[in-house]
Amino acid sequence: MAEGKVLGIGGLFIRSADPARLAAWYRDNLGIAATQSGQPTPDGEWVWMQDAGSTVFAAFDEASDYWQADRQIMLNLRVEGLEALLARLEAAGVAISRREAMEGVGAFARVHDCDGNPLELWEPA
């Protein structure tokens, strides 16, 4: 019998002046099956099947300077092979704005999508 509990994140929805361009940016640069609302990917996919793993769901103080103040959220993506991904992103003209490592937690890098939304790429330790 269902107990009425949340199992995980079911979707992420981002407003954009050019949703087709934004979805293509995520597909082309990060390999995510990102779609324009109501449309499948060019390969006919409707969802992104991701590997199971940990998810951090954290509220930050409104005065935090961890990412730009004009954005209410920052997407953190769990990755494998962070350095290889960063090399591909840089080759595609995507700027890496921040890199850091936290002992026992992993390595992090900050990029922004084509609409300026902050993305944190995290390779767990």
From TrEMBL:
InterPro entries (alphabetical): Anthracycline_SecMetBiosynth, Glyas_Bleomycin-R_OHBP_Dase, Glyoxalase_6, VOC_core
CDD domains linked: VOC
SUPFAM superfamilies hit by this protein: Glyoxalase/Bleomycin resistance protein/Dihydroxybiphenyl dioxygenase (SSF54593)
PROSITE patterns xrefs: VOC (PS51819)
Domain of life: Bacteria
Domain VOC: 8-124
Protein name as it appears in the record: VOC family protein
Source organism: Aurantiacibacter zhengii
Source taxonomy: Bacteria, Pseudomonadati, Pseudomonadota, Alphaproteobacteria, Sphingomonadales
